[in-house]
From TrEMBL, chain A:
Keywords: Nitrogen fixation. It comes from the Archaea. It comes from Methanospirillum hungatei. Belongs to the NifD/NifK/NifE/NifN family. Residues 23-438 form the Nitrogenase/oxidoreductase component domain. GO terms for molecular function: nitrogenase activity. This is Nitrogenase molybdenum-iron protein subunit beta.
Automatic annotation (TrEMBL), chain B:
One of its GO terms (molecular function) is metal ion binding. It comes from Methanospirillum hungatei. One of its GO terms (cellular component) is molybdenum-iron nitrogenase complex. This is Nitrogenase protein alpha chain. The keyword rRNA-binding does not apply. It catalyses: N2 + 8 reduced [2Fe-2S]-[ferredoxin] + 16 ATP + 16 H2O = H2 + 8 oxidized [2Fe-2S]-[ferredoxin] + 2 NH4(+) + 16 ADP + 16 phosphate + 6 H(+). PANTHER family: NITROGENASE MOLYBDENUM-IRON PROTEIN ALPHA CHAIN (PTHR43457:SF1). Tetramer of two alpha and two beta chains. Forms complex with the iron protein (nitrogenase component 2). Belongs to the NifD/NifK/NifE/NifN family. Its EC number is 1.18.6.1.
Length: 455, 541
């Protein structure tokens, strides 16, 4: 496998080979699915929409419904206003969603369709909403698309309607799985804090089998809740790439202060999350969370020799990769290569700082990279473990290096979208995956005389 | 089980008038008394409707040229389109005598990753540089460049860039103007891909025909889950030589010499009929529509091929192979047939599969009550005889038709390709449907439905109405059906199983279908506390 990949350094300066990011609309579509009763709508040709639905479906193994303006050549030349207006009319008539969340594609961006104007001119039934965001894929990545859509939710819907802020917190979870959103909510619930999560794909993309089909499943943040985010006393923006923009918009529009935090992946980021809630909401941390945390530390001590000192390459989305890097450092591992496909030099600075703090030398952090590059580095100097999306599996096989699957997308394994990597329980799961993957490898490689019952 | 016209009409009522008018023409309830009813196909999707269709790029890169294992395909555009078509169709490929492992690029994804300034100032330079770098790094035999939506709009001249690159590197660098908005579905992309391969690859080799061999090409077979390997196994066992497959596990090296074939076998009619026809015009090579899905269909196809050769040895060998394979697989299929018999199914897949799989389901005693294609043309439903009556509209006019002339040296009459006398050939033609495809229509039962470009709303309503036992579709629809309580199988990716073609495939399919319906979890959906208990309220009972 991958025998075609050249040995030794090569000149790769243009485009992407084995990209580590994808395009904006898929992120916007995912975010929109986190609104209750929302039909995401892709303004462009139908292929993009088909691809985004397909990819999300493969990752979540659940239904992903979204409509498209279905441009043909005519619309591409004369503009897509008619297609969008017709779409809006048809969507409300046929599917009757609460809200349509429109995102653009490369095509409608390139021809420069003016969405706010088209939406204003559309027939929107009483009480229903249409929001939009711009997601040209010739900049940013799926993460940018997610961020743009969440920001648009705030700018279209959030309102400071109450004279005094309510005793509730907005949590912007970022581009994470429903399993993570559930876990984050559980932690906040345990602390007895009122919250609004935006967006919230639980119940939508991890919907239970009930024998009762619903076009719009029960989950998702309701439009009323989104409006009400403007009345909250605080926003926690988890993961700056995905959540900062919406957080800032809540400050600007509704005067809700925002604290940016890392996605609570790993011990330290989870501690920070809980401490912030404790201090800002003036609540005590319940015993249950103290116990969970103690279990993580206990497990780290019990298992450290499985992974300590091992070199790991981490790739994926910045909000996942940064706290994950921090966690593997906590575990005593060496993050040798840390790569994201999403552009932005901030990533390199942040990861670089962690390298310094933990006195790691000779490691590389790179934003806007691709997996071909990562593979070249690994060929040059191998690692013991890969952590990232399914797309790392080719490198894993070519270099005979085990892969722990984390992040988006994971297309070749099951159950992961329901299992958190956030919070203390997420820590345990990460430790379990890393330990057991390395132990499996050790068993596989052991000679008969070294093959042991107790490891 | 069939649906009556009233229910069907009622189903369409909630549509806005225009949509209703449009969709009515795409739905045909078979009435055997009416002759072949007309269906509308290959026309625009209704904007806003949740359709199963993809785009031209998906048809060109995703289906036809992407799987060519020894070509590097660069997607020219922003990152997404390339990313989603990376490895997602499970087109298996392996190294062989002709293609060494270091020339197989199937696990790779190449994209110019256009950025804002490139969109403003044009991406030709970037593309040219990427071709240079890629050729220097990987030394491929040939390169494809596929355009995505924004490329057409900004007017990058793919043809000019690839022409220069071809001269510079001395390998074919081919341009496909398959921007996503062209046509109305993947179908436009198939056609574009067919044209470019025909113009630049097929026939460009210098292999000589070995007169002692009977050579076939397998067209429209994409080796998903290893299908084409299973088909090739059977063809080899009978004694045919397969020159090449378009495009499952295929290589440019093999495709170049496809013109030496005696006969073209067409599996997926929709995606490849163009090449079959063009090869017939240019070289005179006849083509035969075959179907290797389902034991009965395989037998018919193998017998048709043997008939076409007019050769007693092939005819005898065919029967031997059929007997041998049936003895092996029928008992296994029979085991699963007991589970499947009497069950009903829906089949919604891209082009030919919704038809092909009906045979396999028949083998299992199942009936398809609703079938539809995502991106077919009328001939896929009604048969090729309607082709002359199909009007081209604005959306299909933009796809160039190649003007193919008979090759001055290589053109021969069909009977000569088959080493037959004209009389014998004519006689065979009266029995075997050379150069013809009758479409799905004749195989549907009275009262069953054919739906073109079926959308989510219609599928949902029909499931509620007809409660099929199984739902065949792509991944986007699979989980919808399952949430409605209907087991669903992906017929694009086979749920990562396969092969489903050939005799072994029929066994795999029978097992997978039976398992999908009988997996114990279906019995556990309702929690015990929600079930009506007979002696409820009496804890002592
Ligand atoms: S055209 Fe743009 S938006 Fe559509 S799939 Fe491609 S990159 Fe994504
Ligand atoms: S069978 Fe269908 S999905 Fe497959 S290549 Fe043909 S048209 Fe496409």
């Amino acid at each position: 496998m991958l025998e075609c990949v050249p040995e030794g350094p090569v000149e790769h300066t243009i485009g992407k080979i084995n990209p580590a990011k994808t395009c904006q609309p898929i992120g916007a579509m995912y975010a929109a699915l986190g609104i209750h009763g929302c039909l995401p709508h892709s303004h462009g040709s139908q292929g993009c929409c088909a691809y985004h639905r397909m990819h999300l479906t493969r990752h979540f193994r659940d239904q992903v419904l979204a409509s498209s303006s279905s441009f043909t050549e005519g619309a591409s030349v004369f503009g897509g206003a008619v297609n969008l207006k017709t779409s809006i009319k048809n969507i409300f008539a046929i599917y009757n969603p609460e809200i349509i969340a429109v995102h653009t594609t490369c095509l409608s961006e390139t021809i420069g369709d003016d969405l706010p104007t088209i939406i204003k001119q559309s027939e929107i039934p009483e009480g229903k909403r249409v929001i939009h965001t711009n997601t040209p894929s010739y900049s940013g990545s799926h993460i940018t698309g997610f961020s743009n859509m969440v920001k648009s939710m705030v700018s279209y819907l959030a309102q400071a309607t109450e004279p005094v802020k309510k005793d509730q917190v907005n949590i912007l979870p970022g581009f994470v799985n429903p399993g993570d959103m559930r876990e984050i909510r559980r932690i906040v619930d345990e602390m007895g804090i009122q919250m609004i999560m935006l967006p919230d794909t639980t119940g939508v993309l991890d919907a239970p089998q009930t024998n009762k089909y619903a076009l719009f499943p029960e989950g998702g943040t309701t439009v009323d809740e989104i409006v009400d985010t403007g009345n909250s006393r605080l926003t926690l923006a988890l993961g700056s790439w995905a959540s900062d923009a919406a957080g800032a918009m809540l400050v600007e529009k509704c005067n809700v202060p925002c604290i940016p935090l890392r996605t609570p992946i790993g011990l330290k980021a989870t501690d920070d999350f809980i401490m912030t809630l404790k201090e800002k909401c003036e609540v005590d941390v319940p015993k249950s969370l103290t116990v969970e945390r103690g279990q993580v530390v206990d497990t780290l001590i019990d298992t450290h020799f499985h992974y300590q000192g091992k070199k790991v390459a981490i790739f994926g989305d910045p909000d996942i990769v940064i706290p994950l890097t921090e966690f593997v450092l906590t575990m005593g591992m060496i993050p040798k290569y840390v790569l994201t496909g999403t552009p932005g030099s901030r990533f390199e600075t942040e990861v670089g700082k962690m390298f310094e703090e933990y006195q790691v030398e000779g490691s590389i952090a790179k934003a806007d990279g691709d997996l071909f590059e990562l593979h070249q580095w690994i060929k040059e100097e191998p690692v013991d473990l890969l952590m990232g999306t399914t797309y790392g599996k080719y490198i894993a096989r070519a270099e005979d290096t085990p892969l722990v699957r984390v992040g988006f997308p994971i297309l070749d394994r099951a159950v992961h979208p329901l299992m958190p990597i956030t919070g203390y329980r997420g820590c345990l799961r990460l430790i379990e995956m890393v330990s057991n993957t390395l132990l499996d490898r050790r068993d596989r490689d052991a000679g008969d005389e070294d093959y042991e019952m107790v490891l | 089980m069939a649906i009556n016209q009233e229910v069907l009409d009622e189903m369409l009522l909630p549509y806005p008038d225009k949509v209703q008018k449009n969709r009515t023409k795409h739905i045909v309830r078979k009435n055997p008394e009416e002759g072949c009813q007309q269906i509308e196909a290959n026309t625009r999707t209704v904007p806003g409707i949740i359709s199963q269709r993809g785009c031209c790029y998906a048809g060109c890169k995703g289906v036809v040229v992407g799987p060519i294992k020894d070509m590097i395909t660069i997607t020219h555009g922003p990152v997404g389109c390339a990313y989603y078509s990376w490895g997602t169709r499970r087109n298996k490929a392996r190294a062989d005598d002709i293609t060494p492992p270091e020339q197989i690029y199937g696990a790779m994804c190449f994209v110019t990753d256009m950025q804002e300034p490139d969109i403003v100032f044009g991406g030709e330079k970037k593309l040219a540089k990427m071709i240079d770098e890629v050729v220097e790094m990987f030394h491929p035999r040939a390169v494809n460049v596929c355009a995505t939506c924004p490329i057409g709009l900004i007017g990058d001249d793919l043809g000019a860039v690839t022409k220069k690159a071809t001269e510079k590197h001395g390998i074919p660098v081919l341009a496909y103007n398959c921007e996503g908005y062209k046509g109305v579905s993947q179908s436009a992309g198939h056609h574009i891909a067919n044209n470019i391969l025909m113009e630049n690859v097929i026939g460009s080799g210098d292999a000589e025909k070995n007169p002692s061999e009977f050579v076939v090409n397998l067209l429209g077979e994409y080796n998903i889950g290893g299908d084409s390997w299973e088909i090739e196994r059977i063809l080899h066992d009978i004694g045919y030589r397969v020159q090449g497959v378009i495009t499952g596990d295929s290589s440019v090296e093999e495709m170049k010499n496809m013109h030496i074939a005696n006969l073209n076998l067409v599996m997926c009619h929709r995606s490849i009929n163009y090449i079959a026809e063009m090869m017939e015009e240019k070289y005179g090579i006849p083509w035969l529509k075959i179907n290797f899905i389902g034991v009965e269909a395989i037998k018919k196809s193998l017998r048709d091929i043997a008939q076409v050769t007019g050769d007693e040895t092939f005819i005898r060998k065919t029967e031997e192979v059929i007997a041998r394979e049936e003895a092996r697989v029928l008992p296994v299929i029979e085991h699963y047939r007991k589970i499947c018999t009497g069950k009903t199914a829906f089949a919604f897949v891209g082009g030919s599969r919704s038809h092909h799989y009906q045979y396999l389901l028949k083998d299992l005693g199942m009936e398809v009550v609703v079938a539809g294609y995502e991106f077919a043309h009328r001939d896929d439903y009604e048969g090729r005889s309607v082709i002359p009556t199909i009007k081209t509209d604005a959306d299909s006019k933009n796809i160039p038709e190649l003007d193919i002339k008979p090759d001055p040296e290589l053109y021969k009459e069909a009977h000569e390709h088959l080493n037959l006398t004209k009389e014998k050939f004519d006689e065979i033609c009266s029995r075997v449907p050379l150069g013809n495809y009758e479409g799905m229509y004749p195989d549907m039962n009275g009262g069953t439905l054919m739906i073109d470009d079926c959308n989510h709303y219609e599928a949902e309503q029909l499931v509620k109405e007809l409660k099929p036992d199984l739902f065949f579709a792509g991944v986007r629809d699979k989980y919808i059906a399952q949430k409605m309580g209907v087991p669903a199988k992906q017929l694009h990716s086979y749920d990562y199983s396969g092969p489903y073609a050939g005799f072994n495939g029929a066994m795999n399919f029978a097992r997978d279908v039976a398992n999908a319906m009988t997996t114990p979890a279906w019995k556990f959906i309702i929690p015990p506390w929600e079930k009506e208990s007979e002696n409820k309220g009496d804890i002592n009972a």
